[in-house]
Write a structure and sequence with these properties.
This protein is an all-beta fold. 0% of the residues lie in helices and 56% in strands. The protein folds into two domains: 112 residues, Immunoglobulins (Immunoglobulin-like), CATH 2.60.40; 121 residues, Immunoglobulins (Immunoglobulin-like). Strands 5, 7, 8, 10, 12 and 13 form a six-stranded mixed β-sheet that branches. Strands 16, 17, 18, 19, 21 and 22 form a six-stranded antiparallel β-sheet that branches. A five-stranded antiparallel β-sheet has the order 1-2-14-15-20, with no helix packed on it.
């Protein structure tokens, strides 16, 4: 795996990586949904999910699709009519299973990958228990990606900037045509003798699993020890399942 670093500007550039399809089941109290990610294309414009009840009572699940964007550091979901969902309401007897089919309504390749979320909500009685009145509780929000016209993966540019002696700004820009899946672990200051300050633990940061095509995301990090220009830091992470160590030099 090749990585080219330009420490003066804190940038690390990476070539495109292939995408991984994750098919491990997602577990909730009442039912299972699998797979937990779905990739579609113009050539393969439809796919399916399978729901399996784990409840002792009948349950009803509503299925919708939303456009997924990342704006100002936040994940956003907006309703869309880009897909046909069949059935949209799933009635599951105890222990039963049901297939839900998802199909692009008007398949058309775009320059960049299109990102969506498939929303599975269990329809439940309202908190007030009013007969006939229903409420909706969100259970799953599962990624769905539609491949770009020309195949390609993510192309990530990383930057680490010192704001002050105890604050860093970590940024990543995806200039590729497809998403990248990121798992952050830690950031440590290094010398020839090894780490000299406790690592900044990044493993509990939520909402950073994916970086979509054309998106820049930033994280403000606090260090327990002063940081100076010229310090060498090491970011440990995974990109699309590949463990990586990225070096930075603070300027």
């Amino acid at each position: 795996m090749h990585a080219a670093a330009r420490t003066a500007g804190f940038w690390l550039l990476f070539p495109a990586f292939g995408l991984a399809l994750y098919v491990s089941p997602c577990l909730a109290d009442a039912y299972l949904v699998e797979p937990v990610s779905l990739n579609l294309s113009v050539e393969t414009p439809q796919g399916l999910f399978r729901l399996n009840s784990r409840d002792t009572q009948p349950i009803r699940v509503q299925v919708d699709v939303a456009v997924w964007t990342q704006e100002q550091g936040a994940n956003r979901e907006e309703p869309t009519a880009d897909f046909i969902v069949s059935p949209r309401f799933v009635d599951l007897p105890p222990g039963a299973g049901q297939v839900v089919r998802i199909a692009l309504r008007h398949p058309a390749a775009q320059p960049a990958e299109q990102s969506y979320r498939v929303l599975f909500r269990e329809v439940v009685e309202s908190p007030g228990g009013i007969p006939g009145e229903k409420g909706i509780a969100l259970d799953y929000s599962i990624p769905l990606f539609v491949a770009p016209a020309v195949p390609g993966g993510p192309h990530l540019e990383w930057a680490l900037r010192r704001v002050d002696a105890s604050t860093l700004l970590l940024a990543v820009s995806n200039t590729g045509v497809s998403h990248g899946k990121i798992t952050l672990y830690s950031l440590v200051r290094k010398t020839g003798l090894g780490p000299v300050v406790p690592p900044i633990d990044l493993s509990k940061i939520s909402g950073w699993q994916y970086i979509l095509a054309g998106v820049t995301r930033t994280l403000r990090l606090r260090s327990s020890a002063p940081l100076s220009r010229g310090d060498n830091l090491l970011l440990t992470m995974e990109l699309d399942g590949r463990r990586m160590e990225l070096p930075f030099t603070l300027q």
